[in-house]
Amino acid sequence: MKAILIVLDSVGIGAAPDAAEYGDTGASTLSHLAAAAGGLNVPTLQSMGLGNIPLLLPHTPKGMIEGVPPAAAPIASWGAMREMSDGKDTITGHWEIAGLEVMPGFHNFPPVNSFPPDLIAAFEQETGRKLIGNKAASGTVIIEELGEEHLKTGALICYTSADSVFQIAAHEEIVPVPELYRYCDIARRLCDPLRVGRVIARPFVGRPGAFKRTENRKDFAYLPDEQTILERLVARSIPVYAVGKIEDIYAHRGITESVHTGNNADSQALVEKWTREKPAGLIMANFIDYDMVYGHRRDAKGYAHSLELTDQWLARYLPLIGPNDMLILTADHGNDPTFAGSDHTREYVPLLVYRPGEDCESLGIRRGFYDIAQSLARFFSIPTIPRGASFV
Q1: Cα separation of 190 and 192, whole Å?
Q2: In degrees rounded to 5, what are phi and psi of residue 335?
Q3: What pTM did the predictor assign?
Q4: Which domains does the chain have, with CATH numbers?
Q5: How are beta strands 240-243 and 362-367 bridged, if at all?
Q6: What tens-digit pLDDT sequence spans the chain (392 residues)?
Q7: How many angstroms separate the CA atoms of 217 and 201, rounded?
């Protein structure tokens, strides 16, 4: 008996009721990228009920997903989830999926002169390198802006975003990847008193005008204050297999085996392999490309194409789901590629639950991503968790 939980990173499905508090009124990742691309071609997701979800939300018809009409008889149960924690970042969304509630939210740095002087001084003293950047920025933009200075001086490019992050970019020829990870360990310790969600290593290669980030990115997460559903499962000898950046998001806790894949194709191949090979347990994966490659770079057509490739993979993958298995597709936040700026957007996220041979139904609007964790507890017959209502 297996559960497969796939987080489609940033695939939001419409502005949340509190979107205005985050400056995200009108954001709607799926409907807007579909319109920008002239429609989405995702017949597998459509058959699962993706197009039925907007009918549950307080949308106008403009909230519908072009090219993805409602299915007359979906092959999966469908719904939407509203985040209850403060924030719209990766850690907050994933932690809530795993049963936690982040309240108050993580600390966010201001957009200019972002890092406190005492933090900068301590970081520079311990690393022996100067810090440049010190502002909110797009990762690809700031390495083009400061990459040449970094090559000449060895100073570390440090920046933030609208999320609770301290990011460190360095050229792999100037700062070897293991050394960059060591600097991130230092930053993680220094950022803990501020409750910063993530420290992120952002290695890159190339020369001025042609810099390129590599897949050696690594996230260093703040440690959760209570057990996640992953830890609860492992404590009861139910294995948890992590794909992509899942291991980093949960600080390597509650994980039996993990592979840090760096793109959707590799993650999908591993999910497929483990679904064939693992007899039981939870397989949890994050498909990162939508957010990292397309959402933050505001590439709506690329985002749409990436979803279409995943849909083709799903068509091949669904037959691997056994009669006692369960597949859950969801997201951790939005990242509307047509919206202002280059940051995440506060949105509802889709919920599709596929169990072969079982009747399918509307799951409605769920108050809290942690309904997934509660459902996994029910599915694996372990004690209930403090939050959420099971849809199993």
Answers
A1: 6
A2: -160, 75
A3: 0.88
A4: 2-104+223-379 (3.40.720.10), 117-221 (3.30.70.1250)
A5: unpaired
A6: 999 999 999 999 999 999 999 999 999 999 999 999 999 999 999 999 999 999 999 876 667 999 999 999 999 999 999 999 999 999 999 999 999 999 888 999 999 999 999 999 999 999 999 999 999 998 999 999 999 999 999 999 999 998 899 999 999 999 999 999 999 999 999 999 999 999 999 999 999 999 999 989 999 999 988 999 999 999 999 999 999 999 999 989 999 999 999 899 999 999 999 999 999 999 999 999 999 999 999 999 999 999 999 999 999 999 999 999 999 999 999 999 999 888 899 999 999 999 998 999 999 999 999 999 999 999 999 999 999 999 99
A7: 5
